[in-house]
Description:
Elements: H1 13-29, E1 36-40, E2 45-49, E3 56-60, H2 68-86, E4 90-91, E5 95-100, E6 106-112, H3 121-127, H4 135-147, E7 161-164, E8 167-170, E9 178-179, E10 185-186, H5 190-194, H6 202-214, H7 219-228, H8 239-247, H9 256-286
Parallel strand pairs: 4-8
Antiparallel strand pairs: 1-2, 2-3, 3-6, 5-6, 7-8, 9-10
Helix pairs in contact: 7-8, 7-9
Magnesium ion (MG) is lined by residues 41, 159-160, 172.
Amino acid sequence: xxxxxxxxxxxxxxxxxxxxxxxQEAQRNRSLDGLTAYGFGEVSIALGWPTDEPRFVAKRLIxxxxxxxxxxxxxxxxxxxxxxxxxxxxxxxxETRRVRRPDGQHVGYVVQPIVPxxxxxxxxxxxxxxxxxxxLLVAVRDFVQACGGDDVMLDAQIPNFARVDGELWLLDVTSxxxxxxxxxxxxxxxxxxxxxxxxxxxxxxxxxxxxxxQTYRGVHNQLTQVAVFLRRVDAEAWVQPAIETFxxxxxEPIDPAVVAEKWEKNQKDFPKIKKLLQIQRxxxxxxxxxxxxxxxTDSFTGEVx
Length: 305
Ligand SMILES: Nc1ncnc2c1ncn2[C@@H]1O[C@H](COP(=O)(O)OP(=O)(O)O)[C@@H](O)[C@H]1O
Ligand SMILES: [Mg+2]
């Protein structure tokens, strides 16, 4: 086996607070100008810091007034990392951090080394020929079989991994939700996300989040979502080979028509959620005169919207 290709960065609280001040400015200006972003997901922006010559990637959680409300989700992220490594798989070296802003708010950050583009699993989709049994597809399948299941929410889409010497490294750890045996969702980020919508809409947000996260429960769903989200990175040609590769290990095969339907539904649902956030931002900034602590981005284009 290879030696670790990734070196954990050494990051001070002062650096995180300097980044946080820039993020607050970006939120006010609704612009990422002057910041370095390596990627956009539905949850996080992978920000490089310092901007001009980044040494590390930082992903930010929504700030909270009480420290424990940040420490709990960070502990859940550590648990997720432990689960993956206990099962013999790899997670990018990841540090969970909490800093206290001058205004007293606590902010959580997930700090990681920067993965060069050539080492992102996503790059393989653009450079290799899609085939049934491609080593990348088999590696993701193995990962989901070992680390996924009914008790955990696992988003194993290809952009969530680095790949070095054929080995996968999970880099997306910011959705550390799990499920009780009866399927009840335990979402440690629920309190944080609730800050982004008006109180009257919180039950609706809870329901929408539950509906979305349930689609990442169980090995069958988790592999289905990998196939669904290939279209998100323009890898349509990989969808059929992925389905066939995954079906080799599934009792009940993934249906390509369901994968296509789920993609259509996602394309409709995500803009709806963003619209909801924008309405709340307008209300919070104009009526309550309180800053909105989130950068609403189009995760396809990376634009702040
Ligand atoms: N450490 C990293 N180095 C380089 N790029 C990264 C790193 N972490 C994330 N990214 C990029 O940012 C994207 C979004 O980050 P991710 O952790 O997956 O957030 P989300 O939970 O929102 O999906 C990734 O798909 C990847 O392209
Ligand atoms: Mg991701």
